């Protein structure tokens, strides 16, 4: 803790001498003469002339889709995006992939501050419940993207900003209710401008759902508090947001046989006596508290120079509790126990895994900008300090068994980076974009892990000290011509360090190396008031990509290894037509090939050379269509998305796949304006309009009954998504 606060204080002072990018914009509040200067951090944002494939969502678009679902649901209709939800409803444990890229490779930031977990590189969206209600804008970059702080920028980046302060007193109250007892209550207030300089905004929310999957309940409480000071060209903002989450575990999918009998079945929490399920453990839950704090300072010196600096600190603490059936005590480092004269080596037990972490640092940026040249430089530094430990808190065979700790380990991770970026208008219509980033990581893990090591007969010991230095260049050209036409091309290098599991699930002495990628892209856009279309070609060539091979580590966990060569290549198409003032329609489609070269698959310890195989969870086709009608306050939007077959393993076996699916949603809305309140919006979303029975994610594996692939057997589990559901919302703005 002390080291984190010291880092924040020292680095914040240093940041004011750094140069990076910020954009000064004045938000004029409707029907109000007061102007608030709101500096929006844009160091990591792509603009229209940046040769990077990206999609934007405005504050209005976010509000219209905000029924209480997690952030991945906002992105589901963007190009190359596939979302999944373990609960089946989009609330609780949700995730998204871009071009087949998994969540650990997607960098996520809010106001330039990293949101990815420093160890797993994932974002657990229920740890920041109802963050959607506090967002001002969203940009999803596909490919390597622009330089950004934090981990995981290795295939896509999600850049979010918080909503700006309001210049006048007001607020909103929002209620949602729908299928599976899903409910949201939210109240937000804004003070308006106080004394000509101050503004305070706050929000509290509560979300709950039973989930489509049985017992996949979510109970999520959240808040956001923002205090801002504005004077001339300077703004200082303090944000604090976070929440408390309690969700029933849904980590385990269901088999095809279980789905045929009951597709909503959840095997988590089963209490098995003998060979029968006799009940379910009520507190089989994940519980987590996360508090995020940001101090943002922005200053514009003149029309050419501007500066932004953010100090941040995140506190996290939580646990999940499992009821585990027929567990071998040795797996928990426990000796057999004597019960009524019998030696018991296996029993049902209660297990609790706890973690606490502190994450803090600074992000600084400044911009020099003229009519023809933008020069940006930025720095970031952060420290993660975490602890993991676990307890056996009860044995069915021995009710008096005392709570016993069976593992504890510690992690520290330093992450520092700097970048320089230039956007130069060489001549009319022709922009040169160049971006160079340096990043250093020091990652240390020590102590006893939760995996039992069969080779030593004890819990796995960790002693990891790894250092990485990455240089990531990016270069591109963008040419606009004939007013509405543009072409672009770019080349970018991305590098990524291994995750925690890549270190813990290993064979003794075998450590993974960093992954590398060269991303080459080219595209064409045509944009008018009536018609917008785009074509983007990409070729992402990986070196030493980490993938699961089917091998088992010394502790029996699936092992990830670096594969020498792999790639993703494809074409992304988009089209939007404003047919009339009240009707628009369009869609997008991605056609891709995603391959590992010379892949070796391991089944029960036997190696099989599979040659060129398709990377798991990488559909060859992802497509979407929409029709949007809007007139006199009414709106109706029908959207459909299609995802082709996906393989569950890298071995490319036809019996281990997720079947293709096509699902449609219908959003209906009406906005009423009165003299009493600013506006009232009524909305109804019908999810999965045509009642498709589909699964958006799953996992599986193989075993051998002989010595050849002809003797291979397989197993698979799936995560069913909700059938037709209804979610209604009313939001009053005053």
Walk me through what this model shows.
The two termini are 41 Å apart. The N terminus is likely disordered. With 734 residues, the protein is mostly beta strands. It has a 22-stranded antiparallel β-barrel. The protein has a 5-stranded mixed beta sheet with strand order 3-8-9-6-7. Strand 27 and strand 28 form a beta hairpin. It has 4 helices and 40 strands. The protein has a single domain, classed as TonB-dependent receptor, beta-barrel domain (Maltoporin, Chain A, Beta Barrel).
CATH class: Mainly Beta
Give the second-level CATH assignment, the architecture: Beta Barrel
Query: How is the CATH topology named?
Result: Maltoporin, Chain A
Rg (CA only): 26 Å
Question: Key terms for this structure?
Answer:
mainly beta, Maltoporin, Chain A, 4 helices, 40 strands, 4% helix, disordered N terminus
């Amino acid at each position: 803790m002390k080291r984190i606060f010291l880092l924040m204080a020292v680095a914040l002072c240093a940041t004011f001498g750094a140069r990076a990018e910020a954009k000064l914009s004045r938000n004029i509040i409707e029907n109000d003469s007061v102007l608030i200067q709101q500096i929006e951090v844009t160091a990591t944002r792509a603009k229209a002339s940046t040769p990077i494939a990206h999609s934007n969502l405005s504050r209005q678009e976010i509000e219209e889709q905000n029924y209480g679902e997690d952030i991945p649901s906002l992105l589901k209709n963007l190009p190359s995006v596939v979302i999944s939800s373990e609960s089946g409803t989009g609330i609780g444990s949700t995730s998204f992939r871009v071009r087949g890229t998994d969540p650990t490779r997607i960098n996520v930031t809010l106001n330039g501050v990293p949101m990815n977990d420093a160890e797993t590189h994932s974002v657990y969206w229920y740890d920041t419940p109802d963050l959607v209600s506090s967002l001002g804008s969203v940009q999803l970059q596909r490919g390597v993207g622009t330089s950004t702080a934090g981990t995981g920028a290795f295939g896509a980046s999600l850049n979010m900003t918080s909503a700006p302060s309001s210049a006048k007193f007001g607020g909103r109250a929002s209620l949602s209710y729908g299928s599976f007892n899903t409910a949201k209550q939210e109240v937000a207030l804004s003070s308006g401008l106080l004394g000509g300089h101050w503004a305070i905004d706050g929000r509290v929310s509560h979300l709950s759902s039973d989930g489509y999957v049985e017992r996949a309940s979510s109970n999520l409480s959240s808040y956001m508090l923002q205090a801002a000071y504005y004077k001339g060209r300077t703004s200082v903002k303090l944000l604090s947001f976070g929440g408390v989450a309690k969700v029933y575990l849904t980590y385990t999918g269901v088999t095809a046989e279980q789905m045929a009998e009951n597709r909503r079945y959840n095997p988590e929490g089963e209490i098995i006596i003998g060979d029968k399920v006799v009940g379910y453990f009520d507190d089989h839950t994940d519980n987590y508290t996360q508090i995020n704090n940001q101090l943002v300072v922005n200053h514009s010196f003149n029309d050419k120079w501007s500066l932004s600096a953010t100090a941040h600190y995140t506190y996290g603490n939580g646990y999940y509790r499992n009821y585990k059936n027929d567990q071998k005590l040795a797996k928990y480092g426990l000796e057999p126990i004597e019960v009524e004269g019998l030696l018991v080596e296996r029993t049902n037990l209660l297990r609790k895994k706890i973690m606490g972490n502190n994450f803090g640092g600074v992000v600084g940026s400044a911009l020099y900008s003229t009519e023809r040249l933008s020069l940006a430089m930025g720095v970031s530094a952060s420290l993660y300090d975490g602890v993991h430990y676990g307890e056996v808190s009860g044995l069915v065979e021995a009710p008096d068994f005392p709570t016993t700790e069976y593992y504890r380990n510690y992690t520290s991770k330093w992450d520092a980076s700097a970048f320089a970026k230039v956007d130069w208008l060489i001549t009319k219509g022709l922009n040169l974009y160049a971006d160079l980033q340096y990043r250093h990581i020091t990652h240390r893990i020590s102590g006893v892990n939760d995996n039992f090591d069969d080779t030593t007969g004890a819990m796995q010991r960790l002693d990891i000290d790894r250092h990485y230095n990455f240089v990531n260049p990016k270069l591109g050209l963008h040419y606009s011509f004939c007013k509405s036409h543009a072409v672009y091309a770019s080349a970018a290098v991305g590098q990524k360090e291994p995750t925690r599991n890549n270190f813990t699930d290993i064979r003794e002495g075998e450590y993974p190396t960093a992954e590398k990628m060269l991303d080459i892209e080219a595209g064409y856009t045509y944009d008018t008031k009536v018609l917008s279309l785009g074509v983007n070609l990409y070729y992402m060539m990986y070196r030493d990509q980490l993938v699961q091979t089917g091998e088992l580590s010394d502790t029996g966990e699936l092992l990830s290894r670096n594969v020498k060569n792999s790639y993703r290549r494809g074409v992304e198409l988009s089209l939007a037509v404003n047919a009339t003032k009240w009707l628009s329609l369009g869609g997008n489609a991605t056609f891709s090939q995603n391959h590992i070269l010379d892949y070796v698959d391991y089944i029960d310890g036997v190696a099989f050379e599979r040659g060129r195989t398709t990377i798991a969870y990488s559909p060859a086709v992802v497509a979407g269509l929409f029709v949007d009608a809007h007139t006199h306050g009414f709106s109706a939007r029908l959207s459909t998305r299609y995802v082709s077959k996906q393989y569950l393993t890298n071995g490319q076996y036809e019996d281990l796949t997720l079947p293709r699916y096509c699902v449609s949603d219908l959003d209906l809305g009406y906005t009423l304006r009165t003299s009493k309140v600013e506006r009232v919006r009524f909305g109804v979303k019908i999810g999965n309009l045509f009642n498709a029975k589909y699964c958006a994610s799953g996992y599986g594996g193989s075993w051998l009954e002989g010595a050849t692939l002809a003797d291979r057997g397989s197993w698979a589990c799936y995560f069913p998504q909700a059938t037709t559901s209804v979610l209604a919302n009313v939001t009053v703005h005053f």
